[in-house]
Amino acid sequence: MSDVGCRMWNVGCGMSDVECGMADVGCRVEFGGGCRMWNVGWRMGNVGWWFWILDFGFWFGWCGMGWGGSGVGLGLPEGRLDTGSRFRPRSRGTAPLDTSDSRPPALHRHPLSGLSDTPPLHSAPKHTYNKKQPTINSAIIILTFLIAYYGRKVVSDYIEIPFTSDYQRIAYYYLWWLLPTALVAGQLYGYLRLMANLGLQKGLLRGLLFAAIAVSPMMISSAIVGRIDEELSVAQLLKTTLFAGLMEEYLFRGFLFGLLFRKIKWGFIPASLLGAVIFGMGHLYHGNTLAETLGIFLITAMGAVWFAWLYIEWNNNLWVPVFLHILMNLSWTLFDISDTALGGWYANLFRILTIALTVIITIKYQQKSGLKINRTNLLKEYLTEGFFLS
Predict the structure, then answer these.
(1) What angle (nearest 5°) sits at the alpha carbon of residue 186, between those of residues 272 and 177?
(2) How far is CA 69 from the centre of its chain?
(3) What is the pLDDT along the chain (390 residues), one digit of tens a residue?
């Protein structure tokens, strides 16, 4: 009997061990699961806190921090914030927040450190105004223009470069204009936007059509009255029409005037007059007398201002003055109307008619939106784009 009792006692001990084992398993499941739930609550609390920081859904953020209604890990009292906002206390895990109080959660206090006031907002990066930058960029643009325009002449006085054809000479001549200006414009305002910044990105067909209509009086009258110059070579014709019209507008209007007016925000008058004076001086060699030279200077300088005005009014489309320049030079060169840029009364009559056509068409074109050159930007451009550096 005693032996049987001992065996039953052993069975009981075994049952006790099994119970202890089950209790241990239960403890592991309950405690481990609880810890994991606590970790989940803590992580959701962090997520909710960052939602609050980012100002995305204030109440949803506080719900994340108040996991299970107890504010686990963040020290929030159950069912109440320290801002006076009211909502129902929640039983663990299920009850939604009462958002009937729609007052914004302004002036919340940091729940851990007690640091003050409103949540920080992610503002845009600050820009600083550099007063010297427009002056520096202006100096760079003007100096580059002078190097491009006069550099070849200076170098030619010291170095004689032999050319085997007129086309090589033309290419060398205009590469002096193209390379330094394109390099500087790209460095200052980006190579990807180079064509747009110089006014050559779009509008080619529109510029050609506009110029063909406007120059038609000059072309027709020159063909009727003038005579074709039989001594004119193809290379010379291309140089004085296509290349001269394209490259002069690129250098004077696209680069010098365009960057000073559009990017650095010079006024229209100083930006256009600077190039106009140099442009007029570049045609003085056509004059034989003082009066004729002065007349050539005035006409070409006013023409430079006129081209600049058309460039801006046609939505920064440099192809408008480019094709006008090309076709006007073509009518002037091909039919041998005059030996100089001054011309006679007959030539100037149709020149004035062409200018009047361009002005009338341009004003009509901008009738709805209004002219872009007006009293707000004649002397100083009031917009501030380009004056701020990140």
Answers:
(1) 60
(2) 51
(3) 455 444 544 545 555 554 545 545 444 544 444 444 445 444 444 444 443 333 333 333 333 333 333 333 333 344 444 444 444 444 444 445 444 444 444 444 444 444 444 444 444 445 455 678 999 999 999 999 999 999 999 999 899 889 999 999 999 999 999 999 999 999 999 999 999 999 999 999 999 999 999 999 889 888 887 788 788 889 999 999 999 999 999 999 999 999 999 999 999 999 999 999 999 998 887 777 888 889 889 999 999 999 999 999 999 999 999 999 999 999 888 887 665 555 566 667 888 899 999 999 999 999 889 999 999 999 875 444 443 332
In Å, how far from its chain's centre is CA 42?
A: 45
CA torsion 117-119-124-127 (nearest 10°) is 20
**DSSP structural state of residue 263:** I
Greatest alpha-carbon pair distance for the chain in Å reads 150
Burial class (CB in 10 A: 0-12, 13-18, 19+), 229: middle
Q: Are 362 and 206 in contact (CB under 8 A)?
A: no
Cα(253)–Cα(271) distance, rounded to whole angstroms? 10
The whole-angstrom separation of Cα 303 and Cα 328 is 11
User: Other CB atoms closer than 10 Å to residue 232's CB: what's the count?
Assistant: 13
- Which of 196, 189, 175, 173 is CA-nearest to residue 140? 189
Residue 289's Cβ-count burial label (10 Å; 0-12, 13-18, 19+) is exposed
Q: Are the C-beta atoms of residues 258 and 311 closer than 8 Å to each other? A: yes
Q: How far apart are CA 144 and CA 150, in angstroms?
A: 10
The beta strands (E) that lie in 217-273 are given as none
319, containing H or E segment: helix 319-334
Q: What's the DSSP call for residue 113?
A: T
3-state class (DSSP) for residue 142: helix
Instruction: Give the residue from 216, 189, 211, 212 showing the smallest Cα distance to 201.
Output: 189
Q: Work out the number of other CB atoms within 10 angstroms of the CB of residue 183.
A: 13
Helix (H) or strand (E) holding 128: strand 128-129
Q: State if pTM tops 0.90.
A: no
Q: Which residues pair with 129 in a beta bridge?
A: 388
